[in-house]
Amino acid sequence: MTAPSPTQADLRAIVDSVDAPDVVLALSQEGHRTIVTGGTGLAGARGTRLHAPACAREDLRFEIGSVTKTFTGLLLATLAHQRVLGFSDRLSALLPPPVLPHARRDAITLFHLATHTSGLPRLPWSVYLQPRARFHANPYAHSTQPRMLGAFARCRPRSTPGTRWHYSNFGVALLGPALTHATGTPFPNLMATHVLGPLGLADTTLSAPYDHRDALGHDLTGDEPCPPFAPGGWGAAGAVRATPGDLLSYLEALLDPGRHPLLADALRYVREPLLRHGRHREHTHSLSWFQHPSDHGPFFFHSGATPGQEAILAFRPSTATALVALANRRYPPAATLQQSTYNLLA
To answer: What pTM did the predictor assign?
Structure first.
C-alpha cells in the first residue's frame, strides 16, 4: 500500500493548532519542499503585544534543544569512521582523572554516552540544586564545563555501562569535552568542520551571538519572552540553533547519504538500529535517533526543547520523507506540536 503523502493543508492545520508566536512546519518529499508558517505574531495567548519577527519566519534560527544530540552522534560517528577515535574509547581516558576510581564510571565508553547506556542519570544533582526560578528559567547557564566534570568525578553510575538504557542529558553532554580532548579542537569548531561545513549548513550554529535572525523564545503563557538559551558546558546536548531550511537539508542528507561522500558512512551508521529497550523491548534506538514502526516502514524521530522553544525532527527512508516542526513557545503547545507531527508520519 502506498503511503499517503502529507499535504500543505495537513501542515497548515497543524500550524494553526499551535498557539505560539512563531510556528514553522517544513516538509521534504523526494527532495520537493513545502514550508508552512504561522503563529500568533503580535498577539500572545492572552493578547499581550509581542515582537514582530525581524525576518521571515522560515528564515529564523530556532533553538532545537535535545535534537542537538543527533548532530553530536553524527559527529562521533564521523570521527570514528575517520579513525580519529573509537566508539570503545573510555571516557575516563579522555577527561581529567576523577578524585577516586570507580569501576562502573571508568568503564563508560563514548558509545555508551551516545546511546544513553552509560548508567549516568539524566542530570547530576548539582543541576537540580539551584534556586527554583533559575532552574526553570535556564537550568544549564551556570553549569560550566568544570562544574560538569566535577559532577562526573563525584557520580556513581546506577548500572553497569552497556546493560540498561536510560536517557541522559549528562551522558551526551560529556561527549563535548571528551571529543575536544581527543582532537585538541573546541567542540563548536569540531562540529563546524566535520558536520555543518560538509553538509552545507551555513545557517546552523552552536556558538554565534544571538541576533535578529534568531527566534525569540516565550514562556508557558506565550506572553513573556525568555532569555536566549545558555547551554553552559552542555553544548553537545543542546546548543544547536538552525533555520528550518538547514534542518531539512540535514534530514535530506540522512535520507540519501550517497549525496555526501565525506559523511556517507557516518550518515548510514547513525540510522542503524543498535539496541532495544523498554519493558517489553519494544523501543528501538540507533546511535542518536529513536526508531519507530509505521505501516509504511520505520521512521526516525527526535524532539527537543529549551525553556522557550520546541523542535521535532523526523524522517522515513522508505518514502524519502522528512519533517521539521518548530515553535517558540514550550509545554502547552509542545503536546500539540509533537503529537501532531508524530501522527503525520506514524
So the answer is: 0.93
